[in-house]
Amino acid sequence: MSIGGVAMAADIQFNTDILDLNDRTNIDLSQFSRSGFILPGVYPMSVQLNAQNLPEKRVAFIPPDNDPKGSEACLTPDLIEQFGLKEDNLGKLNWWKNGECLDIRSLPGMEVSGDLSTSTLYISLPQAYLQYTAQNWDLPSRWDEGVPGVLMDYNITAHSIHQDERNAQNGFSGNGTFGANAGPWRLRADWQGRVDDDATQRTQKLEWSRFYAYRALPALQARLMLGENYLYSDIFDSFRFTGAALNSDDSQLPPNLRGYAPEVVGVAKTNAKVIISQQGRVLYETLVAAGPFRIQDLNDAVSGTMDVRIEEQDGSVSTFKVDSASVPYLTRPGSVRYKLAAGRPSALHDGQDGDVFGTGEFSWGVTNGWSLYGGAITDNNYQAFSVGVGRDLLAFGAISLDATRSQADLSNETLKGASYRLSYSKNFVEYDSQVTFAGYRFSQKDFLSMSEYLDARNYDGPVGNNKSLYTATFNKQFRDAGLSVYLNYSNQSYWDRSDTQRWNLAVARYFSMGTIKNASVSLNMFRTQERDQANSDGIYVSVTLPLGRSGSFSSGMNRSQNKNTYSARYSDRLNERTNYQVTASDSSVGGYLSHIGDSADIDLSASLEENNYTSLSFSARGGATATANGAALHRSNSMGGTRLMVDTLGVPKVPVRGYGNSTRTNTYGKAVISDVSSYYRTAASVDLENLPSNVEATQSVTQLTLTEGAIGYRTLEVIAGEKAMAVLHLADGKTPPFGATVKNTRQQDTGIVNDGGSVYLSGMQPGGQMIVSWGGAEHCTVTLPDVLPTDGLSSALSLLCHAVTPDKNAAPAPTTVGTPDTTENPPS
Predict the structure, then answer these.
(1) Which pLDDT score is estimated for 430?
(2) From CA 734, how far away is CA 594, in angstroms rounded?
(3) pTM of the model
(4) Where do Polar residues bias regions lie (predicted)?
(5) Which residues have C-beta within 8 Å of that of residue 377, sequence separation ≥ 6?
(6) Which domains does the chain have, with CATH numbers?
C-alpha cells in the first residue's frame, strides 16, 4: 500500500509534497503515522463494551513485549471485573505485564481498539462469555457507590385562608430528610412538622419521624437497614419498629423482575394539598390544581394501607384510604427471596409499645410455574405462621393463595384465629388491558395481625378487627376508539364496626373534530361508603379542547356533597419550565402556577370565592447536596434518594440533562441531577443546543449505575473562554511545526497549529497560559494578554511561545494526541 507514491509498511508515511505549506521541513505528523496508533501513556477514556457504555476509566497504552514501537491497551483486572464474565470463563484468562494487563487472545473473538478523537476504548466480546444483562440495567460489578457527602431534602407548603366575618387561618407544613453517605452506608434522619394558626388557637408540631442507616449487599441481592423502620412484608401487615432488617431487594433485579408501586387517584374541588401518610408518617405531600389528580411516583417499598387527606383551599377536608397490597408472590425458578427483621415495636408518638420480636419470610421458585412461600413472626405473647403457594398461569396471569394462623396472649384472654388470602394479577397485552391487583382476604374473628395485637395491648382488648377485604385495580385501553378506562375498588369489613367501601372510576375519550386535534372528554366518579353514615360521593365531568401550540380549555361539572359546581379552566405554559392554570366557577376564581427551577420546584395557587373566602398557597420542593468536590442546590422529589453531581470544572451556567431532568451548573460549575432510579443505568450530558456562545464541550456525555441513596460524581470536559486566531512564534523567530497541538493548563485541546504558526484558539482566558506540544513532548508555553479581542476573527494575535525547561529525570509526556486530563473521576 502507498500514499502519495511513498511505500508504507507497518507505519504510514506521508508525501508532504501534496500539502500547500511554505516550510515542508517544519512538520510533525507523528500522531497520524500509524493507523489507530496511540502513543504510550495513560488516557481518560469512555469504555464501550458491545456498544454498551461502561464507567469512564484511565486507560494505559503500553508497548507489548513483541513490539517495542507499538502500543496496546492495558485491560486491568478492575476493568475486566466490570465485563460480567461468566464464572467458567474467569479461569481461562491469561495476563501480561506481571498480571496487570489481560492477554485478549485468552478470549477468542475479543477485539480492542482505541479512538482518541472520541476518547473511547471500544471492546467487542462474544455474548456467550457474558452474564445476563438488560437494557438500562448493569451487573452489580458495574454499580457505583458514589462519593462521601451530605444532603438535605425538603418539601414545604404554606397557606393562608381569609374567611368573611372570621379571622384568618394560616398554616405551614413540611417534611424532609437529612443524610450523610460514607462508602456503601447511607445515614438518614426524616422530619415532619405542621403549624396551624387561627383566632382561637395555635397548634404546632415538629418531630423526627425516624433515624436509620442502610446499605446494599449486592452479593445477596439484599438491603440491610438498621434503626427506626417500618416492616415491609408481603405476608404480614406493616408496623413501626426499632431494630434491624435484611430484605431481598427487588430494585437490584433487572427492571422486568421488579415489583410495582401503588398509585393514588382522586378529584380536588379547588386547588388543594394532598397528603399521603401511613401510621402518622408523611410519605408524600403536594399541591394539585383543581380537577382530577393521579399520583404514580410513590416508592414501591410502601406496603399496607395508606391514608389520603385532601385539604381544599376553601377549608374543607376529605379523607380516604388506599390499600397498597402487592401482586402475587412469585419467584424465578431456583431462586429464593427472603425478608428478615428483629427489634422492638415503637409507635411514632408514644414510644416503645411492644416486646422484642423476630420475623422472617421467604419465597422459593420451585419450578418454572410454581412458587412456595411462607413466614413467621413472634414475640413473647404473639405468634403467627403463614404458608402459601403461587402459580404462574401463563396466558391467564398469576395467582397465589396463602393461610396465616395467629395466637395472641392478652392480659385476660388468649385469641386464636386464621386468615386466608387469594391474589391475582394479569396483564392482557393482546387486549391492551391490565388487572394490576385483585385480591380477597378473610380473617376469623379471633385472628389478630401484629399491629392489631399491639393496639389490643394498648386498649385492653381487640379494636377494629378486620373481617374481609376485597380490592381490585383495572386498566383498559381502547386505542381504536381513543378510550381509556381506570377502575379501582376496595371493600373493607370488620367484626366490631361498620364496613367501608370505596370505588373510583376514570374514563377518558380522545377525539378529533375538524381542525381541532386531540380533544378529550373525561369522567371521574368516586364513592366512599360507610354503613350507618352518609355516603361521600363525587363526580367530575369535563371537556378539554386544545388551543394554540400548548394551551387547552376545559369546561366541567363537579358534584360532591349534594352540591353542583360548574367551572372553566384554561391552562398553558409560559416556557418549557413554567405552566399555569386559571379557573372560574359559579362564584369563585382561582389560579395555579408551577415552575421547575434549577434550585427548587415552586407551586403557587390562589382562590377567591365571593362573600366567602380568599386563599393563597405556596409550596417548594428541593434539596442541597455537598461533597468534597463541591456543593449545589437542586430540586428533589424523592427524599434522601439517589442523585448525581455533575462537575464542569468551574464553568458556570452549562446546561446539563439527565434522567428526564434539565438544569444548569451553578457559579462553581456544579449541578445535581436528583431523583435518579437506583440500579438503572443513568446518562448525563451537556445540552449542546443551549450552550453559551463562549463554551465548548469536549466530553458531553457520561454514564453510570448508582446504588440506592448514592451521591454519584462525574466530570464533563467543558472549555470556556474567548476564541481568536493567533500566530505563534518561538524565541529563535521560527514557528511551531505544522500539526503541533495547543492545550490549556487542564490539558484540554484548544487548537492545532497550521502553516506558519497560525492557530485558531478556543477557551482563551485573560492572562491565562497554554502549552504547545509536538514530537511527544511539551516544548513551550504561551501567556495570553490580559485584554482579549472582542472580535477574534478580525485580526490575529501574535503570541510568543517560551521554551519549557525539560526535566531530565522525567520521561516525556505523551501529549501529541489526547493527553489525559489531570482530573480523574472516582472509581466505580
Answers:
(1) 57
(2) 62
(3) 0.75
(4) 816-828
(5) 236, 357, 358, 359, 383, 384, 450
(6) 30-131 (3.10.20.410), 146-197+576-720 (2.60.40.2610), 261-324 (2.60.40.3110), 721-803 (2.60.40.2070)
